Structure formats: C-alpha cells, structure tokens
Amino acid sequence: MVSKKHLNQTVAFWLFRAMSLFVVLTLVAILYFIVSRGISAINWDFITKGPEQGMVKGGIFPAIVGTLCLIVGSLIFAFPIGVSSAIYMHEYMKEGRLKSFLQLMTNNLAGVPSIVFGLFGMALFVNKMKFGDSILAGSLTLGLLALPVIIRTTEEALKAVDNSFRLASFAMGASKLYTIKKIVLPIAMPDIITGLILSIGRVSGETAPILFTVAAYFLPRLPHSWYDQVMALPYHLYVLATSGTNIEEARPVAFGTALVLILIVLITNLFANGIRAYYNNKYKK
Amino acid sequence: MAPHLKLQALVIILLASISVAAQNIKLKGSDTILPIAQEEASVYNKRGKATVSVTGGGSGVGLAALVDNTTDIAAASRKIKMEEKLKIKQAGKKVVEAVIGKDALAVIVNPANRVDRLTREQLEGIYTGIIKNWKQVGGDDMNIVVYGRESSSGTFEFFKEYVNNRKNFAATVLAMQATGAIVQSVAQTKGAVGYIGLAYENARVRQLLISYDGKTYIAPTKANAKNGTYPIVRPLYAYYTADNEGKVKPFVDFIQSGEGQAIVSKVGYIPLN
Amino acid sequence: MLGYWAYNVQPLFKNKSVKKVFEVFQVGVLATSSFITSITVLLIIFFLFKEGVNTFRKSLLEDGYVLSVSKSNPVSEISPLDIKDIFDQKITNWKQVGGNDDSIQLFSVDDLPKYYTEAQIGTELEYIGTCLNNYVATHPRALAYFPQKKHLENFAGKLIKVGSVGVYEFIKGKEWLPTAKPVAQLGILPLLLGTLWVSLGAILLALPFGLATAIFMAEIAHPTARKVLRPVIELLAGIPSVVYGFFGLIVIVPFVQSVFRLDVGETALSGSIILAIMALPTIISIAEDAIRNVPKNMREASLAMGATQWQTIQKVVMPYARSGIMTAVVLGIGRAVGETMAVLMVTGNAANMPHTFLQPVRTIPATIAAELGEASNGGLHYSALFALGCILFLLTMALNLYVQLRLKKAYK
Lengths: 285, 273, 412
Prior knowledge:
The structure holds three protein chains of three kinds.
Chain A: H1 4-38, H2 44-48, E1 51-52, E2 57-58, H3 61-92, H4 97-111, H5 114-128, H6 135-159, H7 163-171, H8 176-205, H9 208-211, H10 233-242, H11 247-284
Chain B: H1 2-20, E1 24-29, H2 34-47, E2 51-55, H3 59-67, E3 73-76, H4 82-90, E4 95-109, E5 117-119, H5 120-128, E6 145-149, H6 154-162, E7 174-176, H7 179-188, E8 192-197, E9 206-207, E10 209-211, H8 222-226, E11 233-241, H9 245-256, H10 258-267
Parallel strand pairs in B: 1-2, 1-3, 5-10, 6-7, 6-8
Antiparallel strand pairs in B: 3-11, 4-8, 4-9, 4-11
Helix pairs in contact in B: 2-10, 9-10
Chain C: H1 2-8, H2 16-34, H3 36-53, E1 65-70, H4 80-87, E2 105-108, H5 112-115, H6 118-121, H7 128-138, E3 142-147, E4 157-159, H8 167-172, E5 176-177, E6 185-186, H9 189-220, H10 223-238, H11 241-259, H12 268-292, H13 296-304, H14 309-338, H15 341-346, H16 364-371, H17 380-411
Helix pairs in contact in C: 1-2, 3-17, 9-12, 9-14, 10-12, 11-12, 12-14, 13-14, 14-17, 16-17
C-alpha cells in the first residue's frame, strides 16, 4: 500500500515535471513559431541583398552588416578592458573594501536596464562627445553593456585555474605578471573565449541601447566610417513589426529577420558550449 | 600580432572613408515622410550627382540633428517649433523651410463596424473620451477602442490641432509607435478607431467619411484631398540651413519638380499641385 | 588596445630596471581598467541626473511662448492642471480659477486673422506685436497664448506665471501629457504603476514555474534531463527581447483578447506573460543554485528520520534556500522593470491609471523608448524623459543593492 506521504510526493513531483516540461514547451513553441514561418523567407538573396519596395521585399544585408559592425566595435572596446579588469580584481586585489566596492559597481552595471544605457549613450557619446548617431556611439554604448558580462565570465575562468599552477610558477622565480601571462591566462582562455562568444549573442540582440545611438530606419548604403549610422537586425525587426505602410506584406521579411536573430543566439550558444565541453574533457583527461 | 594588423587596417579604412563620404546628403526625420524620402533618394542616387542617405527617428530627432549639424535635411511632419527655431538661430544659422508634399489623414474602423461616417465633433468626443460607445454615433452597442500615435509624433500633433480642436486626448487612448501598428490593431479589433496617413490605406480596415460642417461627408481620397474638399490634410516639410543651400537645394528642388511630385503621388501621398 | 600593447612590447626592453618600471606600468593599465565599470556607473548617474534635474527647473509653459491676460484681470497665476482644463474647455469661467464671474475667451496667435485684416497684421507679419497688444488690451475676458519673440516691449497685457513641476507633483501626478500645449502635464504615477503592475504580474506568473523547474533540476531530475534543460534555459535567456515582443504581438495579444473576450488584447496581462517568460531563466538559475547550496547533511538527516524526499524539500531544503529564492525573485523583478522593447510592443501604451490587468498600460522604459526620438533635444520633454530614466535607474539599483547585501550576509 502506498502511504499518503508517498502519494503526496508522487503528485508533487509529477506536477514539477509537468511544469518544467511546460517551460521547455514554451521555448519550443517560440522557436517553432519563428522557424516555421521564417524559414521560407530565408534564401541567398535575403541575406545578400538590401530591402526593396518599402522594405516588404528584398533582403536584410545592410542590417546584417550593421549588426556585425556593432558586435566587432563593441567587443574591440569591451573585451580587453573587461579581461584586464577581471585579471586585476582577481589576481592582484586583496579582499577588502575597495575590492567589494568595485565588485558591487560591476554588479550594479550589470543590473542597469538597457534603455538607461541608451539614454546614457545618447547623452554622453552622441550629444556631449559629438559622435552623432554613429557606429562609434552605438558600439561604445553596447560595449559598456557587455562589460559586466565579460568581467564576470573572466573572473569565473580565473577562479577555476587551480592555485597550484600559480604557486609552481612563483616557486620557479617567475614574476606575478609573467605567471599570469604565461600560465594563468592560457589555462583560463577557453572559458574567457566562451564568455566573449556569449556576449556576442547579447550584443547582437539588444535594441533599446541602439535606438538613439546608431540605428537607422532605412539605409541601404553600407557604412563607410565609424561615424556612419547603420541598420541593425533587432531594430529592423522592430521597424518591420510596427511601422511601414504595409505590415501584413512585411511579415515574411519580419519572420526571416527574427529567425536570423535567433540563429545568431543559437549558434553562439552552441559554439560556446562546444568550446566549454571540448576543453573540459581535455583537461580532465 | 593579429590585433595590431586589425587596428592598422581600421585606421586605413577610417581615413579612406572620410574622402569617400564627401558628397553625401543626409536626410533624417519623420517616419511619415520616410517612404517618400526613400523613393526620391533611390531615384536621385541613380543620377550620380550626389548620394542621399535616409534615416528616421522622428520629426524631433531630425530637427535636433539639424541643430547639431549632424544632418543636412530634417524631414518633419509638423511645423518647426519655436524652441527649435530659436536654437538654430542661436547657432548663427538661418533655417529654410520647404513643403515637399501633403498627407491626408484618414479615420479608419474595423470592417465589421456599421458606422461609415463621423463629424468632427463626434471624433473630438471619441478622442477626448466623452463618447465611449459606438451606439452614441449610430453604430452597434460596442465599446470604442481608440488608437492614436505617440504623443510626440507629428501625426499626433496635427490630429490634435485639426480634429480635436487642440484639446488633449483622453488618457485611455492607446498610443502606437507607428502608423502601421494602428492599421494592424484596427484590423484585429472590432470596436477600434484610429487615424492613419493615406499611404497606409489597406483593405483590412475601412475609411470613414468625414464632415466638418455636419452636412456634407467627404471620403478621404487623393482626389478629394487634392481639390481641397477633404478637410484633414497637412503639409510635409523639409528643413535645412541657409549656409548649406548649395549642397541640399538641388535635391529639394528635385522633390518639388514634376518628376519628384510624381513619386510623392506614387508612394500614396498628395502632390503639391 | 593599450592593454594589448602593454602585454607584448615588453621584450623590447632589455635593461632590468626599465623592465621593472614597465611591469609597474602594465599593472597600472590593468588597475585602471578595473575602475571602468565604477566610473561608468558614476557617469551614468551624473549624466542622467544632470539632465533629469532640469525637469524641475524649466517652466512647464512651451518654450518661447507666453500666456497673458488683460491688465484688468485679477488672475495672475493659474496651476498647470487648471490651464490644461481651460484649454480642454473643461473650465470655462474665470471664477473657477479665482477671477471674476466671466467666461474665458481662448486666444492663440493662429486666431489673429479672425480679428485683424491682413493689412493690419502685415504681409511679413511685421505688425503682429501691435495686433497682439491691441487684442489683449481690448479683450478683458481673454486668455491669450502666443510666441513671445520681441513684441513684448510696452506690453499691454499681464503675463501669467507658470512655474515648473515639483518632485512631489511629478511622482504623484496622474496626467502624462508631455507635449500638451500650452502647458505640459508631467505626472508619472500612471507610468510608475504601469511598470510595477506589469513586473509584479510577471513575477506572479513566473515564480511557480521557475521554482518548480528549479526544484526539478536540483532535486528530482535525472542528469540527462538536466543536460536538456540547461541549454533550454540558456536559450530562453538569449532570445532578444525584440523577438519576444514580436512573438507577443502576434501570438499573446490575440490570445489574451480571445480568452478574456476583451475589446483589445494589448493589456498589462500580455506584457506580464511575455515578461514572465523572459524572467524565467533568471529565476530558475538562481533558485537552482540556492537549492543546491543546501548542505548535504541537512538533507540526509531529514531523510534518515524517515521523511520522504518531498517532505525534505518542503521542510528542510526550501526554508534553508529561502534567502536565495528571494534573491531570484528580486532579480527577476529587476529584469522585468527595465525591459523595454517587448513591453513596448504588447501593452498598448495608454498612459492611464491601471485598475485591472486587462487594460492597456504604459511603462517607464516603453515611454522613454517611444518618446525620446521625437522630443526636441534639450527641451522640457527631453529632460522629463531623463528624469524617468533616473527613476528607472534608482529602482533597479535599489533592487540590485538589496540582492547584493543579502548575498553578502548569506555568504558570511
């Protein structure tokens, strides 16, 4: 006979299973919804041609280029600073007020809403520093947004490096900086790169920070310099979903754009997980 | 060493690009005007005299950019504001205004709605929240769902001034980010009413006849807007500064020319003459 | 780039003391970069507040315009809300704003041709000042609204003072009409409440599912199931908010409309549903960590006493992990409060006071995103949007600090 408490457990556990399944199904539903309708829009022309006929036909090439520019621009800026920052905080600083203050600020920056980054980027880079709406202003804004992510993943990576490596290097007379450069960083690199790839996913999908710093509604011309505006995938999707003279006709392009965005996230996630898995296995063996 | 090379390459690209970007007219502003500007630009670009790049953001963004000297033309669906004019003046420049076309605003409802005509007073009642049910204006017993544009858009301000008798909209009016979204929502919502530019007309929504005198109801057609019988028509503007005239004026002249106005008409707006 | 250079140019220096100096320099570069995040936070505070504060300094009257009455009119000050009601023609008598018992006659500069001929105004509007002067002097019941320019020397009328909005009125005000003419209405209560309603609704929806999934992953699931769930949650976290908004617009909005038989589907509930999905990854991963951190011996003690696994979860694991779960909830709220694009696309954005979840609402981030593009740079509306940004920043900052203090305590 099954006692009451075991019956309770069975019911509760099945409920949890069902609810977890529901979470999975939500993702599946969203993915299916976008993929099933977007897949027919995607072809070679779609990713290599510019928008035509009021953006209901043609492709999204300028938006893809724009998003690539923003990814590269923001990470050129955020990656070295983020990694340096994490190295200093983890390898050099002693526990204490200053360190916890810096960590607090980094966490605070991570919690700042993306639209506030947009406001800030507009006030500082676009207006104060006179960059105008430009790749430069947008990249800096997005870079600041990606900074806490990179710092955090780099710190985790450094933490994971066994202290015996450092001690062995010191024992052989190597300096701290030398140890970090030649021993710690190479070991931590796969995890740091994973963080970098994940932040690509984050940067490529953000809309609010680029609304007022770089995004162009319609700009078939490819960017010529840092000071040009560009179209960007997330903003382009927003435009296709809400404006334009014929939203219904623009739906296929909108679904296609959404699919490309999701694919970027999917691929970066897979890639990051792949690197993680590969190096984990390598080091464990 | 790779990052080093990248940096050098970037600097070279940067320097090279400055010389390439010289003969480029930047147009920025109202989302309403974008469809026109887009078409005009792509025809004009083919002439090879200069390239025109078109970016949106809104009338305010365009005019702010004109003040900051980051655009050559500001496209606006409303008249320049006093404060904006003063700012350009403070920068020691003179602003030039050109009308490049006209836009008629149509009032649309869901096709399932029985109501086919409204007076201006009734519209005012609906948008100020006094009239709440379609039966008050001769329709079925159904709540009115009122759609409008964001309070900062030129379209909003024009509608407020010409239809709402300058009265503020009720807080319950749903504010959509773009005209396209209004069409979409009205097509989905049985009790909906909204206002759109004529270029956005669509078989999935029905346009209402409008009367300003309470007797004659006029349909929002291009012909009626052109001959002046349809009352809700607004001009669309291009603003630039006088010191930049040499660079910008040929393009503005092109828009105002017969060929340019044919494009205006083709895109769904009202040409000047 | 500097950091890279610092790392690799070192071999150029052969001399030992130079090398030493160079090493100090490199460490200095590292140290400097570690302050960038703090500097950014401070800069954000500085720029947001610098611009936001202007909201409370600028007159609510449209820049470059004046409101005036005849000198014989006893009224010299009208509250912004009353001015709006006068121009909406809800107030029509001077008595209601402290004047004589007489009807109010509204006048704007566009009405000038009704009273004066073109010859009187001048073809280049050169006599406009004279006409305005004449009009104000001869119309004692008028409330005139016109651009000031220079024709106010020897002005025949009396200017109405319009102050700026106070912090208290800003937060308590129920009308958000930042472009209202002649006087803007800057009351953010509907926006603030809209933001809170949508976020709290999202948490209420997300919490049961988030907790259930976290418990499942930490306590029940087979490692294989966990291996499936982890990337699912990472993906949910990775999908861009604008894609969620698009999904919400096409699927959730019509769904809510038809299920609840509403006039309109763009409601607070639609926003909450989308935000709930977006907050799930945060809640799940933090709650799972909290549950995992419950010491093994506590669990085993409970099981050894004959409790079932479920009883152990209920009576031992959950109470122990409570603080961590609270953290998850607060961070989830933080994520929801700041979310912009998805909410902008599905909540209808009507700036009215929320009464139910089934009505359109307007949130603070959506307001900033929708209006900043059209606000003229440096004007009152622009400042007011920065003030909204300040409030949003403070709100999320407070939630963040709460979480971090709490984590620190738990750590100790």
